[in-house]
Amino acid sequence: MAYVKWTIVTIVVLVIAGFLHYTLPQHDVVRITATKERQITFGENRIFFASNGAGNSEGDNTRFVNFIETFNRDGKPVVFRNEDTGWGWPPYFKFDTSNLQAKASDMISTKENPEWVVVTHYGWRNEYLSIYPNAVELRPVGSPDDSPIPWFNILFLGALAALVIWIWQLLARFKEDRIEPMLDEMGESLESAGDRAEGFWRRVFSR
């Protein structure tokens, strides 16, 4: 039974951790090499892209998506999509896709004369599923070693941890004050009933 309990707990923790890792902002220091608009045909990866725009019907499986192509300081390609989140989830309230694409185009640089940019984004990159993180902000930095401190994530996860601890303590106190006394009372009642039943049968068989 303990194995079942800890298996369920592990699955729940992994699901929550994956959800937070996908949703919370991340920061990559990269060099922008190109900005493009590509036609994407959606399949199982549709959930990892933004909702259709006003000009597309819900049945459309193909539309154009903006992309920002970059390389990190190790020379590894990193590709971001650039889509509005609107009022949907995750709540970045991003409406400036066109402006961000223009800003990214203005920050294009060469390998010989690089300009380093911090790309704030959310989401995952998976080549097999053709999914890309969504860029939400661009900011120039002087060096590829300039890595911003994720203050929002620190504060959010700290507040979440405090909330979890508070709920855990609340449940533990409720169990101690209400559940355990009730179980003890039930145990005493069952024990008393057992004693009475034992006394009854002893009197019956003693006659």
Automatic annotation (TrEMBL):
The chain crosses the membrane at residues 151-172. InterPro entries: Phage_phiNM3_A0EWY4. It comes from the Bacteria. Keywords: Membrane, Transmembrane, Transmembrane helix. It holds the Pfam family DUF1523. This is DUF1523 family protein.
